[in-house]
Design a protein that fits this description.
2 helices, about 60 residues, mainly alpha
C-alpha cells in the first residue's frame, strides 16, 4: 500500500504536469483561434445577459 505522503506527492506531480501541458497548449494558439474564443465568450455573455433580463427584469430600470 502507498502511504498518504506518497499519494500526495504523486498527485502534486500529476497536477503540475497537467498545468504545464495546458500552458504549453495555450501558447500555441494562433491569433485567429484567440479571436474566435474571445468572440464566442462575448456572444455567450450577451445571450446570458439577455436571457436574465427577460426572466428576471430589474424593476429599477422600468
Amino acid at each position: 500500500m502507498l502511504d498518504t505522503g506518497t499519494v500526495a506527492a504523486i498527485g502534486g506531480v500529476l497536477l503540475a504536469a497537467a498545468i504545464l501541458y495546458a500552458l504549453i497548449m495555450n501558447r500555441r494558439r494562433s491569433a485567429g483561434q484567440v479571436h474566435r474564443t474571445e468572440e464566442a465568450t462575448k456572444d455567450l455573455y450577451e445571450r446570458v445577459d439577455h436571457e436574465d433580463k427577460i426572466t428576471d427584469p430589474d424593476p429599477k430600470t422600468n
